[in-house]
Amino acid sequence: LDSRLESYVGLEPSRSAAAFVNKAVESVPSLAGKAKVHVGTATDVGQIGNLHPDLVVLNSVIQYFPSSEYLAEVADTLVHLPDVKQIFFGDVRSQATNEHFLAARAVRTLGENATKNDVRQKMAELEDVEEELLK
């Protein structure tokens, strides 16, 4: 975290992980008192008292949200927080390039001698087991 940071608030479902991060943060003098990780999920963000972020960052973790409805609920909560000026969605795979991504994975898995039919079949298998939300 940058030394110019005024404050940082995070959410982590694991109590032990949140405690570990909070202990690490307090051991860094420039961050002590500026950063805190709360125990909870993304939908709990509205329950954190006195929260006035100007920037909200949702990185690749959103790809593992249980549904697009869950993501919409989180986004709706965030846009209604006081003082939010920007919401940044980072490191999210694109639906527009997913077919190319699946083809590359299929070819890499099957090897250079794979037939077009082999690649198409592998792509279908990969798509069937896909768990990430795509934008």
Protein described:
InterPro entries: SAM-dependent_MTases_sf. This is Enniatin synthetase. It comes from Fusarium poae. There is one protein chain. The chain is of the alpha/beta class. The chain has 3 domains: 1-40, no CATH class; 50-90, no CATH class; 95-128, no CATH class. 37% of the residues lie in helices and 13% in strands. It contains 4 helices and 4 strands, in the order E-H-E-E-H-E-H-H. The strands form 2 sheets. Strands 1-2 form a two-stranded parallel sheet. A two-stranded parallel ribbon has the order 3-4. The longest helix is centred in the C-terminal third of the chain and has 13 residues, at 98-110. The radius of gyration is 20 Å and the shape is elongated.
Provide a count of the helices: 4
**Percent in helix:** 25-40%
Q: Mean pLDDT across all residues, rounded? A: 87
Regarding quaternary structure, what we see is single chain
Could you state the order of secondary-structure elements as H and E?
EHEEHEHH
In short:
With 135 residues, the protein is an alpha/beta fold.
